[in-house]
Predict the structure.
Amino acid sequence: MCGIVGYIGTEDAREIIISGLTRLEYRGYDSAGIALYGSESKTFNIYKDKGRVAHLESITDFSYKSCLGIGHTRWATHGVPNQANSHPHTSEESRFFIVHNGVIDNYKELKSELLTENKFYSDTDTEVIAHLIEKFSFEMNVDEAIRKTMSLLEGSYALAIIDTKDESKLYACKNKSPLLLGIGDKGIIVASDLMALVGYSKEYIPLKDKTFVEISGNDYKILDIIGKVVKHEVKVIDVDYTNIEKGEYAHFMLKEISEQPSVIRTIITKYFDGEEVILNGKVKEALEESDRLYIIAAGTSMNAGSVGRELFEKMAGIPTEVHIASEFAYNMPLLSKKPLFIFISQSGETADLRAVLVNVKAKGYRTLTITNVKTSTLAREADYFVEIHAGPEIAVASTKAYTAQIAILAILAYGLSDKHINLRKELSKVAISIENVIDRREYIETLVKEYLTKRNCFYIGRGIDYYACLESSLKLKEISYIQTEGFAAGELKHGTIALIEEDTPVIAIISQRDISKNTRSNLNEVKSRGAKTLVISTKGVHEHDDQIVLDDVYELFSPLLTIIPAQFIAYYAALHRGYDIDKPRNLAKSVTVE
Ligand code: G6P
């Protein structure tokens, strides 16, 4: 949530920051802002407003040279999206400019205890930080003032700070929220994510929590809160972000849905040697030695985790629990004797997961992260990590990361199973079957026009189909804003059936032989009450009037396939309503606040 970029060097700060913010826009896009130092006029200017980075670009003055600046793209936490609440924020006497990603939990206390005389111009928690730094700067050096402020802040922050009295320096610091230092030949960048550094820096340093950085020219000092030098690791940037264009596709989401067969094939090439699964020995050992797996995730990744539980329990016989990260962090259940914590996260940055990771690591438990971003915080900080190789996912609504996560979970579960299936063959079959759905997307679009006509919609299914329903309804609500839920088909009659009216759309997912009849009776129950029903089924269990019939795949892998028409249903429902598909309202792709 929120992306920050700061630059100091000899290149054009404005270009580096604006292009960085454009790449970080997936983190939040309700407002954007930039502060720049004009090298010739020797003045500082702030441009900021509600709206996207493209709007910021249109209101920024490009006519002067600037080699120092900080920028921000916002996902509002405190205060509505408007110009006053947009970053950068300034201190009371405008000496300090800051941009912030994170949430300061004790900002109200700090305001009422230390800043009673100060006048504030925004509703943000961030402004308090700027005021504190300025307050302390009257009594001590700027670096000390920032570190003293850090020592008072409770919560999460990644900050880039400019002192308008010294344009030769850029400051940054962080706790919990991600922040990287990009080292280039012509300057140094601080940014929330590697994507903002690519093209400008060859190396980067992932900053540790509670560290402070003072950058001047090409020189930097990394210190802890008391001013002691912190050891750091310089890493080479070896990620490929060439694949971040939409190409021939109208939206990233459509591109990413269409990439799913090739993602599954990539995973096969990465994790198979012939018919044999290649698993990192330590990962395999950690899985084998644990008596219970605890999957911790959020959103789509949690829905993939629920499918993962079925895979671990049914294929490998390992008891598995799935938990919402934000709940687990502060309400931990009784644990087994030898738990292994599996964090599933597309971005590898989700703050709710990191809160759990820090907590369970401190207790000495082993941790494994499954992620799409090998350079992410969760990948770095867990004991082990497994990459899903989905390639950059840009649309906020996750599609290919979900299927990639399930494919990886299947590989892990298979690695521990008695290998009763030919996994490589089964996954290849899934890839072909997904292609068959992609080929029929125009037909699905006609169904959407016919069925998705109301403000609400239900997905129903049983067993593993129920988990596919949860993800299907999440996709639909995220981008089309249709009020929708996924229900265990049998549970509907215990309350929610009261909501069924004439023509309420109910979509059933039916792929499991042993329970397909039960779901069908539940479907009849809603039909008898006026629902307009649409069935997504697989060949082995289909009936002649089912609208979408998919190929048969290994039953436990059916969510890899049944989700594809549901992704298209969400896509076309949003398209026909004219919504911004890749950047839906109120959401962000990387959720770095708890
Ligand atoms: C946000 C995104 C979702 C994503 C969830 C978890 O809510 O909008 O698409 O599923 O975060 O993110 P993660 O990166 O941890 O998978």
